Automatic annotation (TrEMBL):
It comes from the Eukaryota. This is URB2. Residues 54-251 form the Nucleolar 27S pre-rRNA processing Urb2/Npa2 C-terminal domain. One of its GO terms (cellular component) is nucleolus. One of its GO terms (biological process) is ribosome biogenesis. InterPro entries: Ribosome_Biogenesis_Reg, Urb2/Npa2_C. It comes from Mytilus edulis.
Amino acid sequence: MHNKDITGTLGALFIGHCSHVTGYLTSIAQQLSVLEGRNCMGKLLCDLQHQIMIMCPLTKQMILNILGSILLVPVTMETFPSMYEILNEALLNHVNTVFDIIPVFLNCSKHILYMNLINDSHAPLNGTSTCSRIYITDEEGDQDVLSQKPNVTTDLIGCIHMIDRLFTLISTHKEEFSKVAVYVVADYVDHVHQHTLLPAVKKALVSAVYKLLDISDKHVLAQLHTVLNQGVKEVFKGLYSDYSNFYKYTGRV
């Protein structure tokens, strides 16, 4: 039986017992976070959580359990889609609960944005590593290697397009997220300061970050500019300049 069949069957059995199941799956996630070779189980866990989000009436605590499990499971190409769907489902159909737990929701969003996106089933990118990150400079020459693996870059961009859709959905709730979206932007510029992105990956990722700049409170943005260290501040200035010149809607024709 395929994972999808198992997930659907178990998901159907969980109706009426969701409060117990979400807590149980969270404990599984805690164990997965310290185990090796856990990608397959991580995918199954995320698929089950997604089914529960769709099929069960959920309390705030149950949603917290589900989001908490996202933070414990490694982000791979296999787990990423279900993690995205969980966050998307939460914001679409449990939006009032999300408004009560925005810090947790944003932590989950940052988790799937910045963690590993390539799992062990891919060929090694160099002699010692079987994982890749969005940010590719930890090993000299990684960018050259990745540029020769268009399927890897395509997969990364596909994940970032899902992030873009999630950030677009977040941007429809400007009042609730305007004062906190900037913290995701701050994390982004800090990462970019430390790591160089592949051009195609950066182009896709910047488009997603612009969605958050669109709703960020201008006073919080000004405060962010004053607290960043010099190197990160320059990255932020460049990002905001490009956003203002090429993306920001001004209302002028």
